[in-house]
Amino acid sequence: MEEAEQARAAARDAVADIEPDGLRAVIDDHVASSSMLPGVLTVLSARVVDGSTDDDAVTRRAAGVQLIYEGLRTTRDLVAEEPWADTDEQDPGDDLDVLAADVLVARGFRLLARTEAAGHAVQTVREFGRQQTDEQEGRASTSRSLESNVFELAAIAGGTAAGGETPVALRQYVVGLADNAAVPLPGAGDALPDEIEDVMARVGSRQADDRVSPTSTADR
Fold first, then answer.
1. Which are the contacts of 52, defined by CB distance < 8 A and separation ≥ 6?
2. Is the peptide bond prior to 92 cis by the omega test (within 30 degrees of 0)?
3. Distance, CA of 35 to CA of 145 (rounded, Å)
4. With CB atoms counted within 10 Å of each terminal CB, which end of the chain scores lower, N or C?
């Protein structure tokens, strides 16, 4: 879908100056192969809240959300797989993946730093850290999933692109989408129903205290 390609192009552009070349290649591979669902939700949120927003500004925000997600997702995968556990067969590529994850998150923060989404970006990373700590120490985590936090970040980043506020009902809706999404995330074109923009527009026009049930409007 067009929004996915816009988000991917903006994300790749945001990391195009990374050095050395080997690290940039690893980062570019991550961006090129990842689901653009967070970035697409950012673009759609901007469109349904205020269709007159600047396209370049919105795609930069979409890239920021996408890079933060990709960096944290990569970190989660590395923690789960523990590629460094086998000290007899260390792969330099694993070290590059760790560094790439840090750079992806940092670049995402840079793109969102002066936006209304900056605070939720920080909250997303903090909650991700608490969740990972809980899991490593065998505790049941009360933190929301990475996908829930990132989808809400997408709604905030996109919905505030024109300087207003993201409707609470829209934030609730995308969190519901995250709760019902498969992990790893599928491609945006496969994960979202054809009428997603109309659904989001209707949700966004509701009062902030409306209760929204994403599973009743999205064919899962």
1. 162
2. no
3. 17
4. C
Please name the residue that has the structure tokens 């997303």. 124
Structure tokens belonging to residue 88:
């007899």
Please give the distance of CA 4 from its chain centroid, rounded to a whole number.
12
The SS3 call for residue 110 is helix
One-letter amino acid for residue 155 of the chain: A
Tens of pLDDT, residues 119-156: 999 999 999 999 999 998 999 988 899 999 999 999 99
Q: Rounded to whole angstroms, how far apart are CA atoms 137 and 143?
A: 14
Confidence of residue 212 (pLDDT cuts 50, 70, 90): very low
> For the whole model, what pTM was predicted?
0.90
Calpha distance 157→64 (Å, rounded)? 9
- Between the alpha carbon of residue 125 and those of residues 83, 87, 135, 149, 210, the distances in Å are 22, 29, 15, 9, 28
User: Distance of alpha carbon 159 from its chain centroid, rounded?
Assistant: 14
